[in-house]
Amino acid sequence: MELNDPVIALARAAIGRGDLLAAYDLVRTDGEPALTAERAYLAVLAMARMGAVQEATRLYDAAGLARADDVDSLALGARLIKDRALSGGANKAGLAQAASAYADIFDRTKDPFPAINAATLSFLSGDSVSSASFARATLAAPAVDRPEDYYSGATRAEALVLLGRTAEAEQAMTTALTLPGANYGARSTTLRQFQLLAKHMGSDEQLRPLIELLRPPAVAFYTGHIFKADPAREAELASRIDAELEEQQIGFGYGALAAGADILIAERLLARGAEVNILLPFAERDFIAQSVLPAGADWVPRYDKVRAAAASVSFATIAEFVHDAAQFGYGATVAMGLARLRARHLGSRVTQLALWDGVPGEIAGTGHDVASWKGTGGTTSVVAAGVLNRSFPRAPSIVDPTPRDLKALLFADFPGFTRIPEMKLHVFWDRVMTAAGRLLQRHGTHIEFANSWGDAVFAVIDTVEVAAEVALEFQEVLAAVDPAELGLETLVQMRVSVHYGPVFSGHDAVAGRTNYYGCEVSRAARVEPLTPPGSVYASEPFAAILVNTAPDLFTTTYVGKLELPKGYGQFPLFSLRRSPPAS
Q1: DSSP helix/strand/coil, 166
Q2: Which of 350, 384, 418 is the last residue of a domain?
Q3: Is 561 helix (H, G, I), strand (E, B) or coil?
Q4: Same domain membership, residue 235 and residue 371
């Protein structure tokens, strides 16, 4: 570590807590190459963990990290080769190249980390002889022979699998799960490795005991009716909820926290040691007024207790309740996506748990939530609601709600614009902005509004799927531009951000046409300046809706929370890319 650089410790701490955006911002400035090897390493590592493999590779090469002599920098280069091979459908030539890179590092360092990676990648590329050799070398390392933490124990199990000693591997994994560091995140990483091996073998039969050992508990999106407190009735419902939670092996819950079913299900999740993640549809004070207090003040202390014990509390929107019933449906749909995202990250199962009376719903409510979940391919476990006391006054509407629509919002700009010489600005206009305009025109009526100013573009799009495609195409269009045409020595890529939420529309008296406005437009605009060049960042609602509707087309990777400017608070962000082709 470069001891005289205080930024290094701050960036490492940010990576340690998963705040990859903060780490990247600390060690990078306006897209220019990192000044030191340590900063360069951390910049590439942050980008790689975001899933931006191409950008990470470009930074790795530009910084000359391949010429470093430490195992971390060298292994990072091998990791990028592996990531590229896997993102391209696990092609054998790429996997063999990655295996060779890890093998060279092991020959130089004798570190078991590159050895086990060389073993697995050799196996996946079809070289069983080299795989066995590296697996035996891994087992011979003292840290793996006598593991004292989860990672070393899991490495031992992986090496034993590659040598065909699956019974011993199962025993090693059982031991590893008792060692420090055996958290769900670490387990899910190992799970994916074994699933990759099982896929290569053509069957998961041989590795099924290991896979089941590692598989985290299921994730549930929960929903249900608001009702007045009734201890006797709640005791009966709690028993039936407990039975479903046990049968489905649910360890993670996502949903709101309204009086009645939400609070009761969340309480039962916590009672079994499960994790509860609360997603409120709008500002908390308004939510309590609309969905907790009307059913009785005795629900408020229970709300507070669950909230305090929750692993996370987030909001579909930070705006207040505008007396639009669709706000509840929007919040529920975002929570559904977050449950699916968590299951994907964990490599676990996802389901819906609904305390429901069986009555369909249209724009909000339990019936709406059940229909929405099933409509996107989900399975539902229903706890029959039976007779509930729902005779309570609803909070009155104090305004006549102005209609709003759910839209995808895209912002993009070219961060190197201020460095383009005046005499080259017409080239930028002709090459970059004209290409952007043609791109939007190709998507026809899906683009409901578009505007530009200087180097920036704003578009309102009807679906998240089209918005995701447009955002990624923006990057591809710019990649075709020669930086010399713009008077630049190196290409500075676009920054693109996408968001999804409720917006107002109305006649813009200045522009003389329909325009879009509202809190979500402002919030979306705050993300784009913080997006690394060459990346597409999606808001949490956008990522959640996308995983509901197009999980096979696009992938979103969580990159952490960032403090948005102008008092908009922290915003969880995701890196967006196309899903790799099925192998």
Answers
A1: helix
A2: 384
A3: strand
A4: yes
Q: Are 124 and 196 in contact (CB under 8 A)?
A: yes
Q: Name 132's Cβ contacts closer than 8 Å, sequence gap at least 6.
A: 119, 162, 163
How far apart, in whole angstroms, are the C-alpha atoms of residue 186 and residue 38?
25
Residue whose entry in the numeric block shows the structure tokens 């490599």: 347
Assess contact for 228 and 194: CB atoms under 8 A: no
Beta partners for residue 571, in sequence order: 562
Distance between first and last Cα of the chain: 40
Distance of alpha carbon 370 from alpha carbon 352, whole angstroms: 8
pLDDT tier, 18 (very low <50, low <70, confident <90, very high otherwise): low
Per-residue pLDDT band for 66 (boundaries 50, 70, 90) equals confident
Same domain, 193 and 162: yes
The residue range of the domain holding 167 is: 6-214
- The yes-or-no verdict on residue 273 having pLDDT over 90 is yes
Tokens of 403: 């209609």
At 177 the pLDDT is 94
> How high is the mean pLDDT of the chain?
86
Instruction: Give the CATH number for residue 426.
Output: 3.30.70.1230
Provide the residue type at 71 as one letter: V
Indicate the pTM of the whole model. 0.77
Q: What is the distance of C-alpha 337 from the center of its chain?
A: 10
461 plus 373 within the same structural domain: no
Decide which of 153, 183, 214 is a domain's last residue: 214
Per-residue pLDDT tens over the stretch 514-530: 899 988 898 888 888 77
- In this structure, the answer to whether residues 453 and 546 fall within a common structural domain is yes
3-state secondary structure 264-276: HHHHHHHHCCCEE
What phi, psi does 80 have (nearest 5°)? -65, -35
**Total domains in the fold of the chain:** 3
Whether 143 and 101 share a structural domain: yes
Residues 458 and 563 in one domain: yes
- Burial annotation 184-198 (CB, 10 A radius, 16+ → b, else e): bebbbebbebbbebb
